[in-house]
Write a structure and sequence with these properties.
With 322 residues, the chain is of the alpha+beta class. It has one domain: oxygen-dependent coproporphyrinogen oxidase (3-Layer(aba) Sandwich). It is built from 10 helices and 8 strands. Strands 1-2-3-4-5-6-8-7 form an 8-stranded antiparallel beta sheet. A hairpin with a 5-residue loop joins strand 1 and strand 2. It is an enzyme of class 1 (oxidoreductase). Its main location: plastid. Pathway: Porphyrin-containing compound metabolism; chlorophyll degradation. One of its GO terms (molecular function) is red chlorophyll catabolite reductase activity. It catalyses: primary fluorescent chlorophyll catabolite + 2 oxidized [2Fe-2S]-[ferredoxin] = red chlorophyll catabolite + 2 reduced [2Fe-2S]-[ferredoxin] + 3 H(+).
Length: 322
């Protein structure tokens, strides 16, 4: 599992696990929720075309995950978008980037990117889901939501990924990745991680018997993660127990962490000087570059084929350039 988890822990917003990573996967065919989405396909934002609305509907459908999993993702997307309201532009990605699949149809994905207005601290918000059938007969399902701040705010970014390779196995990555060295800027460690008690959600989650910490063997991965990052592997004897953990534990903890990010990071008033902006630009650029070139650049072609992968990655580079 280690080699295939590295892309997720680099805080990539649309990481992919290769089919060789799940030797013990079983068939996963959870039905989507019948719950009415808490945000509409077009939301309250003007100038979205019919194609854009169709792409948004596909994203919000989260068709291959269970009801508690889907509801969690919908609530997070809704909370984040409602907080920034008109400060986010509608997604205008090409239709064949908003939803795409491999030539064989064994892998498909949905992608939404919404840029921030000039008056917003948010550079862009990225949401996605990926579904891939595995040679073992099972499937891999990844849902993710990430938000990147621009150079006017030096606070951490936000990331959540739920990676499910069977009805009874799930990996959760939930973090506020720092954008500055916390040794050189100890006030940031106190402001964003200590004073907000961000380590408590991780501690609470790890009290559940089925939850085990996930430790990456990559020293680089550990370097770019925050000290309060939640990286856990959850394995249950029955699917019903997994859904119970998602509903009663992952759901409130994820919303708590997003709330901390919204109140203390994204919406905080920060005085960022020119020297700090230059540092942020360099560091943000390096992290985003690794996401595209190393992680997604190697996994996308294997999953979707070269033509589709190049089309999607070329479009994503436009947003990931600092």
């Amino acid at each position: 599992m280690e080699a295939t988890m590295r892309c997720h822990l680099l805080h990539s917003p649309l990481s992919i696990l290769s089919s060789s990573s799940s030797s013990s996967s079983s068939t996963f065919s959870s039905s989507s929720s019948s719950r009415t989405p808490i945000i509409s396909a077009s939301s309250s934002f003007p100038m979205a075309t019919t194609q854009d609305e169709a792409g948004r509907r596909k994203f919000l459908d989260f068709p291959f995950v269970s009801a508690p999993h889907k509801n969690l993702m919908l609530d997070l997307v809704s909370t984040l978008e409602n907080r920034f309201d008109s400060q986010l532009l509608p997604c205008t990605l090409p239709p064949d980037v908003q939803h795409y699949q491999s030539q064989s149809g064994t892998a498909q994905a949905s992608l939404q990117i919404r840029s921030g207005q000039s008056n917003s601290p948010v550079d862009f918000v990225l949401g996605s889901w990926v579904h891939s059938e595995l040679p073992t007969g099972g499937s891999l399902d990844i849902t993710s939501l990430s938000a990147y701040l621009n150079l006017s705010n030096d606070s951490p970014n936000f990331l959540i990924e739920l990676i499910r390779s069977s009805p009874t196995m799930l990996v959760l990555i939930l973090d506020l990745p720092p954008r500055k060295d916390l040794v050189l800027w100890p006030d940031d460690l106190k402001t964003f991680y200590e004073d907000t008690h961000l380590d408590k959600p991780r501690q609470d989650l790890e009290k559940i018997p089925e939850v085990q910490p996930y430790y990456s063997s990559s020293l680089y991965v550990r370097t770019v993660s925050s000290p309060t990052a939640i990286m856990v592997r959850i394995e249950t004897p029955e699917e019903e127990r997994m859904e119970d953990i998602i509903r009663n534990h992952l759901d409130p903890i994820s919303k708590q962490v997003l709330g901390v990010w919204l109140d203390h990071c994204a919406c905080a008033k920060r005085d960022v000087g020119e020297a700090e902006r230059a540092h942020l630009k360099k560091r943000d650029g390096l992290i985003r570059g690794k996401t595209i070139e190393i992680d997604l650049g190697s996994s996308f072609p294997r999953l979707f084929g070269t033509e589709v992968a190049n089309r999607v990655l070329d479009t994503m580079r436009e947003y990931f350039t600092v």
